[in-house]
Specification:
The protein is α/β, with parallel strands linked by helices. It has two domains: 2-29 and 274-412, Lyase, Ornithine Decarboxylase, Chain A, domain 1, CATH 2.40.37.10; 32-271, Alanine racemase (TIM Barrel, Alpha-Beta Barrel). It is 30% helix and 25% strand. The mean pLDDT is 97. The chain binds ligand LLP.
């Protein structure tokens, strides 16, 4: 993303031109950023053997997944759909992990039929797995009793979390494994999403390593994802080199004691794609009512739910007048709920000092590449936007805009 002559360019193309060509609203991704992040994170960890698996819940556009595959990453999946997308993108089953929190046995069976390893989430599931597939191979997800993340909804470790087997249940894990002859290939954890404090990650890592010490014959240990990105210009980036260095140090120490070079896995989602993505929209109506200047745009939380769901902050740019004179404004969506605003926190509207928007202007909502389209819905019966990949002045449609037929066909066909 860059601004030239006060106008916004994505992947070397003027944002306004992208809207002219592909219409509005529109998701745009810069390929260079995805590749850069993928290389950065792999280079940050010196330890070998390692594998960085892309947690594709962040964005399952198959063309984006192909780029990530080209960069040499594996993949973390949580549903039949994500396994399907990963196989379509060309990932080998051996690079895919299926983390199975309360998933149905149909989904597990589908993954197993593709030779994909299942990451067991509870003792109950482990027992049932053992009965169905005695002698099978598994990974076990551990809850290290440490959580972190940008919002309560995204903290996935600790006593309030529904995920994993508590770290002090190793004896039970071993008992069930023995009873059904299950082979524990690896242990896993994911403590939460949007972590900007590396210390929390390392603290949790040590707990998982303590668990691993008590289980013989592990091939890998997976420390999950969660690495945060800056959403505000004022926020600092996590020092990925420093984090990578600490991870390597702890892991090398562990492997020496364990007597084996275990494979180190991490599974970031957001870090790889968040900053590559932008949601472009068009101003439909502006109104100065009550205490706010409402800038109404042609998208809403159906297309980017993070502000409404978590009060998340996303930078907003004026594509055609980036450094224009500013005033306090509320950017509001087109859905029938008052919570449908993009300039807000958890409590409600927080006006933002932005270049003055008028009807027809293009609004650019930044850092929308992770958990943007992948959490989008058809609420208010509006189709989801198209997605475009931009690189060195060229734009490629990577998912067409949905149509009303896409929304209604399944009920019209009954
Ligand atoms: N591994 C597992 C098992 C996960 O559950 C997740 C995310 C990740 C890896 C990747 O986490 P990341 O590196 O992307 O932080 N919708 C929320 C984020 C929810 C993340 C859920 N799990 C948001 O928009 O902030």
């Amino acid at each position: 993303m860059m601004v030239r002559d006060n106008r916004l360019y994505l992947g070397g193309i003027e944002a306004q031109k992208l809207v002219d060509e592909f219409s509005s609203p529109l998701y745009v991704y810069e390929e260079a950023t995805i590749r850069e992040r993928a290389r950065e994170i792999q280079n940050a960890i010196d330890y070998v053997p390692k594998q960085v698996k892309y947690s594709c819940k962040a964005n399952t556009n198959i063309e984006i997944m192909k780029i990530i595959k080209e960069e040499g990453l594996g993949i973390d999946t949580v549903s039949r759909g994500e396994v399907f997308a990963s196989l379509e993108a060309g990932f080998d089953p051996s690079q895919i992990l299926f983390t199975a929190n309360n998933v149905s046995w149909d989904e597990v069976e589908y993954a197993l039929s593709k030779d994909i390893l299942i990451n067991i989430d509870s003792l109950s599931q482990m027992e049932q797995f053992g009965k169905r597939y005695p002698g099978g191979e598994i990974t076990v997800r551990i809850n290290p009793n440490i959580g972190a993340g940008h919002h309560n909804h995204c903290i996935t470790g600790g006593p309030e979390s529904k995920f994993g087997v508590n770290y002090d249940r190793v004896a039970d894990i071993k008992r069930i494994a023995k009873e059904y002859g299950l082979i524990i290939r690896g242990v896993h954890q994911h403590i939460g999403s949007g972590i900007l404090d590396p210390e929390k990650f390392i603290m949790a890592m040590k707990v998982l390593l303590d668990v691993a010490r008590n289980i013989d014959g592990l091939d890998f240990i997976d420390f999950g994802g969660g690495i945060g990105v800056p959403y505000r210009d004022s926020e600092e980036r996590i020092d990925i080199e420093l984090l990578g260095g600490k991870i390597t140090e702890e892991f090398e120490k562990f492997c020496k004691e364990y007597g084996k070079s275990v494979i180190l896995i991490i599974e970031p989602g957001r870090y790889l794609v968040a900053e590559s993505g932008f949601l472009l929209a068009t101003v439909i109506a502006v109104k100065n009512e009550s205490n706010h200047r409402f800038v109404g745009i042609d998208t809403g939380f159906n297309h980017l739910v993070r502000p409404a769901m978590y009060g998340s902050y996303h930078e907003i740019l004026h594509a055609g007048n980036a450094h224009g004179e500013s005033t306090l404004q509320t950017v509001a969506g087109n859905l029938c709920e008052s919570g449908d605003t993009f300039t807000r926190d958890e409590e409600g509207i927080v006006d933002r000092d932005l270049p003055v928007f008028n009807e027809g202007d293009v609004v650019c909502i930044c850092t929308a590449g992770a958990y943007g389209y992948s959490m989008a819905s058809q609420y208010n019966s509006r189709p989801r936007p198209a997605e475009v990949l931009v690189h060195e002045g060229r734009a490629r449609l990577i998912r067409r805009r949905e149509t009303l037929e896409d929304i209604f066909r399944s009920s019209l066909e009954i």
